[in-house]
Amino acid sequence: NATSWLRQFVVIASVGALLLVSAGLLAQEIALRSRPVLGWLTLLPLLAVIRILPARTAGACGAFWGASLFVFLALQSQPLIALSLTSLASLVGMPAAYATGMVLVSRRVGFNPLVLAFGWCGVELALLPLGLPGGLLGGIVGGSSGLLGVLQGVLGYVCIAALVVTVNAIAVSVLSRAYAKVCASQRVVRKSTLTRCSRFVPRESPIGW
Length: 209
Prior knowledge:
mainly alpha
């Protein structure tokens, strides 16, 4: 069906665009650290994929996100990572493994922000050889002299990254529940409308009149 294929294409293109924007914003913030607020928002598309899509598809999205992040980091005026196959494999493989694993875990325990944060700690530790100051997320929001800077000095940037993931996961949960309520209310309205319209449809006479 052409309509079905078109709908799937639109969905895939939309998800890909969101992941691409997410990776681009994260790479820019890692390089410049000019807008710390972006560090609190950049994982929304990836975590939404984990909540919505099957494990294999989520893993592919994680790999695409990681590959996009590698490209954006490489395009910075002063690349922050080594432009090697090892770096590429790490940035592709770890987000893919994280997305796949978290989908499988979520099937058992639900979409739990704390579980997602704990899993991301593994991603940050696995990417230590890349040499990113503060990792992917910890250095963005914890590099200031405020409370987060103090917490980073005490707990380490991995814990700050876990906090960022927790906030993103909570936001995804809230948004998905709000969307579900909107869809449910629309179904109720449609059902009510159909019920009202059916009152004006003449019923057939039992004798065929």
